[in-house]
Amino acid sequence: MTESSEYAARAVNLHKTYGRGGSAVRALAGVSVSFPHGEFAAVMGPSGSGKSTLMQCMAGLDTGTSGKLWIDSTEITRLRDKALTRVRRDHIGFVFQSYNLLPTLTARQNIVLPMNLARRRIDREWFDQVVQSLGLTGRLKHRPHELSGGQQQRVAVARALLGRPAVIFADEPTGNLDSASGAEVLGLLRASVSDLGQTVIMVTHDPVAASYSDRVVLLNDGRLEGELHNPTVDSVLAALRGTQTSVTG
Amino acid sequence: MLAGLRGTLSRLLATGLSVVLAVGFVVATLTLSATFSATTEQTLTANMANADVRVTPTVAMAAGANPREFLDPLLPAILDVPHVAGADVERTAYLDLRFNGTRSVAKASGLLTEKVRWQTLASGVWPQANTEATLDQVSAKSLGVRIGDTVAISAVNAGVSPTEITIVGVTASSAEGAGLGVPTLALMPDVLLDPSYFAVATGILVSGDGIDADALAASVSDAVADTPGVVAQSGQEAVDYQTGQLSGSASVVRSILLAFAVIVVFVAGMVIANTFQVLVSQRTKDLALLRCIGASTAQVRRLILAEAAVLGTLASIVGVAAGIGAAQLLAMLSRTSSSALHLGQIAVEPPLVAIGFGIGVVLTVLSALPPAQQATRVRPIAALRATDARIGTRQGTLRGAIAVLLMAVGSAGLYFGATRFGLAVAVPAAIVSFLGVLLGAALVIPWLVRGAGSTIAWTSVPARLAALNATRNPRRTAATAAALLVGVTLVTMMVVGVESVRTSVTDRIDEKRPVDLTAQSVEGAGMTPEQTNSIAALDGVEHTTLVTAGKVQIESDASPALTLAARGVDPAGAQAVARSTVATPAANEVLLNPTDAAGIRSGDSLTVTGVNVMGVNATATLVAKVSDDAPSQRATFTQAGLQSVVTQPVTRQIQVRLGENFTGDQVQQISTEILSLGDDLRVGGGAPERTYFEQVLDVMLIIVLALLALAVVIAVVGVGNTMALSVIERRRESGLLRALGLTRGQLRGMLGTEAALITGVAAVCGIGLGVFYAWAGLSAVALDANKLSLTTHVPWAKLGLVVAGAFLAGIAASIVPAVGAARKSPIEGLTHR
Question: What pTM was computed for the model?
């Protein structure tokens, strides 16, 4: 990634079909979407709309059937597994619904895991800053099962932030959390975008979570249905109701 | 239910494989030992194929009387017994057989009367005249003798000129004499009556006119009752009698093989239990779903056990077939190779096959019990949720305490058995301590694996993760490692044991008989330079040195005059051909054995005079050197020293050192070549003895290792199963790691490292234990047989190979699960369940 592109992540005419022939399921039917640097975007849609598939393809966890994908200036649709793994390791951060921390490692080891895998030197100042801002200072030696759900998810956020990736993908990051912990995590993601210029793409079905974002991308039936800038809970709900009606009507 | 089996067919292969190997081994073992017994019986009664009764001299008698003819007077009396159709005296002699410039020792027997003749012709006819003979098929082929060829026979070591005889028939090879490898001739009985052949009567074969063998034996017994030292036996009696004489070697072999079978069944049981755990864990969700929709715990348990029964039955059938096939193959191999053990047609005994089959089925079902129990204990709803690997299991403190106690008592017993009390204490102590080891493995092995893991954890993240993962399920890790530990311990014990015995025996042979081969002439003129040069030039001969001979008279102040045979050696050359340090004289010395010295002491001045046939005697003054290592009944000089008193010493002997690692066949070959250089030559030396022992030990080691290797193979299959289970349990983690940037190669490497850690620890512990047990065993044996000096010799290179082999096998076992895990896209792992 010699020169930075305008967008942190971009999909052009992305198709994804599961199975073949009569039983084929079209998860994505030609999605083109771009996420600029420094944006906190939310991807929303009803179940089966393809929002998770879109995220998985864009994050290089899955491959599309056709179409092109970029992370920053790298076209990842051309990459083989090894190079793709490197892109994930060095340029993408992940936050999952079920935290996904390694149970054998301490919080600290979990946070630095991608950096260790890449054998990259850890910037101590940055590490301290991330840990402090996420309120994990006293928890670094604990193992995941000794932490609460909110704490575990904050460890996951710290892991994603530490490498200063081009983009962080968050898949239902508040799905398993109570509302207070959820709000905390969303506030942290919001702050990372506002204060640090991080790019975050979040898949969610929760209008409250979406209201923290800069822009909501609406998906239905594997197609882009519209966008919502500076969303509020109400405008998101209204937009979702619109997609619902368009589905049924 | 069968659908369940089919669905997991590929996963069942590992379990099936363990069952097949175990059952196959048991069946092969039992079949081979039955075959061995049958072969022994056939061998013992081969010469009674056409006879009902054999009159055999008892051991005491054979030593006392004139063995040539003491049986002959009995023959007319036996022929007079009612119902006797025919009888004849068996006669055997050893004689020199010359053909085409080769000379070998052959066994000759007198042609028996047709009624009791047991040999069969492969081609040609039986001899009709004194100048005709038959030769056995194997030797005819190896010597290149064809029907119609003329060979020369003569008495061994006698100056009688050879007799020419024509080979008119070739006898079929039979079980009898198998493995002797000696050419066997059948001659007219009259030929063997020539006293120079020194033919020995070994028994009288009697055939009846169809009467019951036991009744005939009774009446023949009556007829020979007046002659002490002979017994008349029917075939069965003879077998019982001779089997007793062989101290039941068949049953010894059988119990050794059975001990290995028990070990293999034991290891296979551990592995099968582990595999079922894999199978049940893989299907936890299905089983839980069954519970949710109303299946009772008993139904789920029955389902699993029924599956196990079906699997056990199918695998056992395959195992039985494999076992019989393997036994057949081994029996065939034993007939073609030059090994000491020749097996006849294999004997498949239905009861033995049933035992192997039953063990397979019972073992499988029993192994499935614990996982079946475990599966029913899972709460239905818990099982339906995502399964994350649990961390930590309960520690059995009681188990630990018992293990420590057993190990402490066992090790102490073993130590004292090895150093003071012998095998009677050492063997039970070894069993107790090994039980302790197996019990304690669950506690100690995870700890050791953790320790080993911490030594590599710093190298890379995958290594650290592998180290952590290796002990996540300590009980499973311990069970996997324990199966391997048993195998490696036993392999090590056998390798060290055999290596030590071999080293001790060959050291002893080197010490007693330092020279590989010697050739000497019985002619007064000694060896010709042509002969010695030809011997030195033979293939496989590394060094040679000549020994000259004469006769001397030794006078000294300390003793009356001695007349001794004298040998002249080249000190440097003599040492170069010897395999241990030999006593040699200095230029002005005479070497004497204390038994000949008659009061002479080292340093005494001796006046030595040659005793020469020609009457030209010289005298020299030399210094005595008396040494226990000196050969007795001769005085040893340097060659120059001998020449100073005996003006024309003859070259009596050539000593030969062979190259390293010579085989028995090579020694035989070289001996034959030397013998063929002249009729006056005789061959001796330690090499035949050495190669015989080495060959016996090598064959033993190979057989034992082949048996034990199977235990290791099964254990390695177990390592593969454990890795498969780990991969399933950690599907989610693997997906996460792949998402976070672990490459496929790194993931495979991580799993390989984990397997290597477990196998490495098991192998190293096994080596340690094996060496300890071998030391204790050898020391205890040496204590019991107090004349035997056995030193423990650890062949580190071979043990290194064992460790490397176990290590690589462990890594190889992880390949299949690892490749499967790495092939999945990260999202497959993450979204599973």
Answer: 0.68
